[in-house]
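Same chain as my last thread, 207 residues:
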Amino acid sequence: MTLVTLAALVASGVAPTQARIFVVPLALACARFDIDTAARVAAFVAQCRVESANFTALEEGLYYRKPERIRAVFSSFVPSLHLASQLTRRPEALANVVYANRLGNGNVESGDGWRHRGRGLFQLTGRSNYLDAAIALGQPYVDAPSMVAEPMHAALTAAWYWHRNKLNVLADAGLTDPITKAINGPAMMHAELRRQYTDEGARAFVA
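reply #2:
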């Protein structure tokens, strides 16, 4: 019996509209990758909630109005306010700059940064990650990257990433912060909120 039900998602804090959209994709994705205990489902859904703004954002937002904000977010890849000012209100140009020559992407001119920008419940990013997910799931994500922003594939790619990084083991041990680091990186953004959502899910996803 699946622990991912409409009632459980709503009880965990997911808005009813999003819960109705994602209950089937999440249930199928969790079943496929053995996310099948209260601890595992609670941890997985909690991370999905934070990464996707509670299941409302399936594509990375790269529209910035202020160069200062671009510098704050992408300081390692946008080294000056002058360059940042050239990238304001230009999400495609910004993506191609900040994701160039990494994560399996080509250079700025290749367009890979924009083509393989963050999508899905875990914001799958970069050509190499799209390719790995495509091979593992048997889907044409490299050639049709927008698929990852569809609810079913958004859930599948997140569950695949979870499985690839052996996060069930961490969930079983109740280690939320290492899960956050594996998904969000050293920044550990919203770590406290992720712990809160995991606790809420543990009370909601019960047999």
